[in-house]
Write a structure and sequence with these properties.
The complex is a heterodimer. Chain A is an alpha+beta fold. Chain A contains three helices and two strands. Chain A has a domain of 51 residues. Chain A is elongated and about 45 Å long. In chain A, 9% of the residues are buried. In chain B, helix 2 runs parallel beside helix 4. By secondary structure, chain B is an all-alpha fold. The chains are: A alpha+beta, B mainly alpha.
Chain lengths: 90, 196
């Protein structure tokens, strides 16, 4: 099982950032303060949605068929995510 | 039965499925209206009548659906430019399905006869005296009124969900606009049916 990447602080609900990176081959550690990219700050479900959208060549109709939802439902979800990404980028 | 199918089929089903299903039931509902002598004289109306021609219930439902479609497409476009006409049209057609159940209660002019008896029992010269109506007639009218209210609520739930999915609308302001537009659609449809 792959542990989920936590992006929200369980204590104060603010966005988390990366403070340490490790090379799994030689164990070199890099410390610092790295802000998570916008896509990683989305929920797992939203990241999956973007991946599906990319794999469907951006076709909402194909996405709707794959997900078993109607076209406007998928379009609304995408529009809501665009708004969320805009908010995260501000 | 799945709750989503009954109250919000717009989330899962494609516009083609919804249009085919909705149009089939609209034709069937209009024909039932003709057989049971019922007019759909407004977007939220169904009234038993004495005489009816085959074309009347079909024309009623065409005008009701068009009134809903045109007004709510304009509202939808003003809320969200991405609103598609086909989603508003399918919502307008599907939402009216509950009203097609109501004429079934007028088998053999049953409701029309009760309404006539009720009107005859009213003494116009002495309006203070209660109408002499039998308990069974009163209970039947109350039951029908109750079913009518259930169908009205079902219509509103279906149409709101269809409109919400089509426009991705959020917020109280748009709920108020939706209610105002429903009242306007009722007035316009009643007017159009009355003059045609």
């Amino acid at each position: 099982m792959n542990p989920r990447l936590p992006v929200i602080c369980p204590s104060c609900s603010e966005s988390l950032s990366v403070s340490e990176l490790t090379c799994s081959h030689c164990q070199t550690k890099i410390s610092g303060h790295f802000v998570l990219p916008v896509l990683l700050r989305l929920s797992e479900e939203e990241q999956q949605f973007i991946l599906e959208f990319f794999l469907s060549s951006g076709s909402l109709k194909e996405m709707a068929q794959k997900l078993g939802n109607s076209y406007p439902t998928v379009r609304n979800k995408l529009d809501d995510m665009i708004e969320k990404v805009k908010q995260l980028n501000m | 039965m799945n709750r989503k199918i009954v109250f919000n089929p717009f989330e899962k089903h494609s516009e083609i499925t919804l249009l085919i299903f909705g149009l089939t039931l609209t034709i069937l509902g209009s024909f039932i209206g003709y057989l049971m002598k019922a007019r759909f004289d407004g977007i939220i109306d169904m009234h038993p009548v004495e005489n009816i021609s085959l074309i009347e219930p079909f024309l009623d439902n065409l005008l009701n659906t068009l009134s809903l479609f045109v007004l709510f497409f304009i509202l939808g476009k003003s809320i969200n430019k991405k609103t598609r006409w086909v989603d508003i049209l399918s919502a307008s057609i599907i939402a009216r399905i509950p009203f097609y159940i109501l004429p079934l209660f007028n088998i053999g002019g049953f409701l029309e006869k009760i309404t006539e008896r009720l009107l005859e029992s009213i003494d116009l010269e002495n309006l203070n005296s209660p109408p002499a109506i039998s308990i069974s007639d009163m209970l039947t009218m109350l039951l029908f009124a109750g079913i009518g209210i259930v169908c009205l609520c079902w219509f509103i739930a279906l149409f709101w969900n269809g409109f919400r999915v089509a426009t991705n609308t959020k917020g109280t302001k748009n709920i108020i606009l939706f209610v105002i537009m429903l009242i306007v659609a009722e007035v316009i449809s009643k007017f159009l049916i009355a003059i045609l």
